[in-house]
Amino acid sequence: MTLKLGVPSKGRLMDKTFDWFAGHGVNIRRTGSEREYSGAVEGIAGVELVLLSAGEIPRELAAGRIHLGVTGSDLVQERIADWETRVVALEPMGFGYADLVIAVPRCWADVDTLDDLDAAAAAFRAAHGHRLRIATKYHRLVRDFLREAGVADYQLVDSQGATEGTVKNLTAEAIADITSTGETLRANHLKILSDGLIHRSQATLFKARAANWDGAAHDSFRALAARLGLDA
Ligand SMILES: Nc1ncnc2c1ncn2[C@@H]1O[C@H](COP(=O)(O)OP(=O)(O)OP(=O)(O)O)[C@@H](O)[C@H]1O
Ligand SMILES: O=P(O)(O)OC[C@H]1O[C@H](OP(=O)(O)OP(=O)(O)O)[C@H](O)[C@@H]1O
């Protein structure tokens, strides 16, 4: 079977993914017109490039429809239940860094830690009759993290973008989102809890356990891994 390699076809991880492979001696390139989603891997037989958005790659890996895929570790851990049973993180790639953090309004002088948040959440519920709202698109990671931390008196509200704006818009009291430079948090008068780092993400090359690893796919993988300098 052809070895299918899923790479981001657009978005912030695309160019650096292509550069990373080139820097490791493997030229992958888009083929066809600029708008056509097709691609090729030069010099290694039996490898097919599958162009997908970074957000779709976890699903394709989990289903075994691609053998290998590049995407952010945050997206894999958020979108695949028990991700380690479905994929193997082969290689962190050294770009696409972003931290998933919990942040609260900067003016909350008494809230700097998760314990403070827990106390504030209880007080909030007593005062308002509903739970403190945390806006995020990272539901699984946030729930798991807060459960471990013993914070229970909150509710998640879904936010698929402009999450930092939800506090100003009064649809949430706190947020959990990705930050890289910190500019968006600062501009929206939010501060990160001192122990509020949920996940440190970077672009990573993943291997799908459920893909069809027949002899041909395995041979192509060994050739690719050797070229990339990975243990296979
Ligand atoms: N400043 C940042 N903001 C958001 N994501 C970032 C940032 N820096 C790196 N990333 C990472 O980039 C990845 C998301 O990339 P991108 O938004 O291009 O993909 P996507 O979710 O497929 O996008 P799309 O909305 O176009 O489908 C995530 O793994 C995320 O951690
Ligand atoms: O720390 P910073 O460098 O300011 O970057 C963080 C921001 O970038 C991302 O948003 P994106 O641009 O992907 O838009 P989104 O709101 O649609 O997610 C992320 O969701 C933060 O809002």
TrEMBL record:
Coiled coil: none annotated. Keywords: Amino-acid biosynthesis, Glycosyltransferase, Histidine biosynthesis, Transferase. Gene3D superfamilies: Periplasmic binding protein-like II. It comes from the Bacteria. GO terms for cellular component: cytoplasm. It catalyses: 1-(5-phospho-beta-D-ribosyl)-ATP + diphosphate = 5-phospho-alpha-D-ribose 1-diphosphate + ATP. Its EC number is 2.4.2.17. Pathway: Amino-acid biosynthesis; L-histidine biosynthesis; L-histidine from 5-phospho-alpha-D-ribose 1-diphosphate: step 1/9. One of its GO terms (biological process) is L-histidine biosynthetic process. Residues 54-225 form the ATP phosphoribosyltransferase catalytic domain. GO terms for molecular function: ATP phosphoribosyltransferase activity. Catalyzes the condensation of ATP and 5-phosphoribose 1-diphosphate to form N'-(5'-phosphoribosyl)-ATP (PR-ATP). Has a crucial role in the pathway because the rate of histidine biosynthesis seems to be controlled primarily by regulation of HisG enzymatic activity. This is ATP phosphoribosyltransferase. It comes from Rhodovulum steppense.
